[in-house]
Design a protein that fits this description.
- By secondary structure, the chain is an alpha+beta fold.
- It is built from 6 helices and 6 strands, in the order αβββαααβββαα.
- Strands 3-2-1-6-5-4 form a 6-stranded antiparallel sheet, with helices on both faces.
- The two termini are about 25 Å apart.
Length: about 180
């Protein structure tokens, strides 16, 4: 019975190591890069790389957030079974952080379906006014979600760019490299 927990811990640690390595090498966007995992139905920031243009954010390692309020959290939720997402909602609700936060369960599930279809999640000032983000889930070889990576920055630098049609190329590139490194360690 301990083996699955040990394997999960090993994969999460491996994910962190791989993601940190890739994020450190691939931060050409000029924006902040992040790594988030789900723990006890909350999002936990594990790592952040600031660029020379970074703004002050509260996303330090160890910071907890509601999953539905961030692009990374929504990328993680989109990779979970609907039943598990409902358990998370039952446990924490859908608290509003800004006027743009998704607080309606039906709207959240529609957003998660769109994320599943396109493979990326977006945060348009949903957790923090003025902050936008694009994220992708990191999966193990079986398809289980291990965490998520993102690029975030001020609305005036990211929202002006059509994030849904022209996301920072570093996100899918980094996602692919991390998943390959985990699969073939």
């Amino acid at each position: 019975m301990c083996r699955p927990i040990g394997n999960r811990h090993r994969l999460r640690r491996r994910t962190s190591i791989e993601a940190i390595s890739v994020i450190d090498r691939r931060s050409p966007t000029g924006e902040t890069a992040n790594l988030l995992v789900e723990e006890h139905s909350r999002g936990i920031f594990l790592y952040r790389v600031d660029s020379s243009r970074a703004v002050n954010l509260d996303t330090h390692a160890g910071r907890e957030v509601y999953l539905h309020t961030t692009a990374m959290g929504k990328a993680i939720l989109a990779g979970l079974p609907d039943e598990r997402v409902r358990e998370i909602i039952d446990r924490h609700g859908l608290p509003r952080m800004t006027e743009r936060t998704l607080t309606d369960e039906e709207e959240l599930f529609a957003a998660l379906e769109a994320i599943r279809d396109r493979g990326r999640a977006y945060d348009e000032e949903e957790r923090m006014r003025g902050l936008c983000c694009v994220a992708a889930a990191i999966r193990d070889p079986t398809g289980a979600v291990l965490g998520a990576i993102s690029v975030s920055g001020p609305r005036n630098r990211l929202a002006g760019r059509p994030l849904e049609t022209d996301p920072p190329k570093s996100i899918p590139d980094a996602q692919n490299v991390i998943e390959l490194n985990i699969a073939y360690e």
